[in-house]
Amino acid sequence: MSLIFSLPAILEESRREYKKIKENEEQGKDFYPVEQLCHNEPEHGAAAESILAKGDNLEFIQYLMREKDIEGRIQLIYMDPPFYSKASYDAVIKLKSPLVPQAPAIKPAAYEDVWKTGIEDYLRMLCVRFFLVKDLLSEEGCFWVHLDWHVVHYVKILLDEIFGEKNFINEVVWNYKSGGTGKRNFSRKHDTLLFYSKTKNYYFQPLKEKSYNRGYKPYRFKGVNEYKDEMGWYTMVNMKDVWQIDMVGRTSSERTGYATQKPEQLLSRIIESCSRKGELCADFFGGSGTLAAAAEQLGRRWISCDIGDLATASCLKRMSVKKSSFTLMGDRFDREGEALLLDVEVEPIEFTAKKLVTVTLQGYEPDEKSIPVKGEEREVIKAFCRADSLQLLEYWSVDFHYDGNMHSPEFSFPKEKDSIEKTCSQIGQSISRISIRAVDVFGNSMLKVLELDQPGMASDC
Ligand SMILES: C[S@@+](CC[C@H](N)C(=O)[O-])C[C@H]1O[C@@H](n2cnc3c(N)ncnc32)[C@H](O)[C@@H]1O
Asked: Which atom of ligand 1 lies nearest, measured to the CA of 81?
């Protein structure tokens, strides 16, 4: 049966599920703070409320509604869900070490976009979330969904019903050069973004772009400002709805290796036009955290949620490099940190009651089960384990005053330029319990707690 006949039923079933969720708001899964990263209060006061969550976004939205009183408080929600492409996606991890010559990149699975139960189930999954995110938006709030030719036309029909046709603001075409070509079709070189408002009083700040004059020559019209660059003469006009932005290139500094990562420039345009500094922006299919990265840069608070270990690790590392302050939440997913080999030294400081505590990473020994690659790639990992195991870590952080509950590190070390800091020191009087949290290249995370019994000694808790 053609999908057109199923759309009303998809909408009604999703509405029923949404109503059931709202009626049972007190129930649902809890999310717990796992790590609280606090760098200096950044400009514009954005930060303290930013959240990175690992888990299913439906459960997380329910949690936010139940515990964080979030309805009506988000200014911008951007969603970049799987596109119904029927493909599986990898993350590309390039491990480099002078001790392991010419190691090939490894490609652990990032996420699946395969829907064995068909397109109806996929659309129902989206639709329930559309109903819920509408409730999360402020009265001036905006919603963007990022899709492509696979399903965008069906989703437009569903969103017109949920947000109202009158609140459909734009179809934005993101045009890029990368990707394949077809022999029996024109090469597919764009994604489609649908932009809706919650009400007619939505916030929107038009952006400007260059518009080159015909022949790149000056017009010299009275009262019109004209400018010149290396291409020629242009004026500044309100931005149009076709955006030519390159995909994140292999050598780009923003590249995380996470499949289907979107460019920060694309997200910056959406954030700048639909939110003000200090406001809250959210992405419930967050992947490597592109919305979070762009929001942080622009002084907005952010929420990013993803179900995957690799996505969460990628976003954690990215936001740590950006010195962002945020809470990582989830269902207490850390393993115990036996695989982390550490050395801890405690030196009393003469004539004071203080001591210098130094934690040094010595090695990393993941168990077989936590290595999610097969064949040749597994051999590459084993070679790294033998020669330079710390290359397998992406991030670690140290809380010298662990309260037994929340890991709130004073120091965090993302791997940068293929190298990770190995030593961390702190001077203090009351350092007695230290927690060390680490994340490896596969997204496995672990927490190790050390009790300092007496000067010069440390033991596992
Ligand atoms: C297209 S990718 C997002 C890429 C992201 N915009 C970026 O720039 O990296 C879609 C993401 O949705 C996540 N995802 C799929 N189903 C989810 C669910 N139910 N809850 C949370 N995340 C989900 C996948 O793990 C994947 O990372």
From this structure: 10
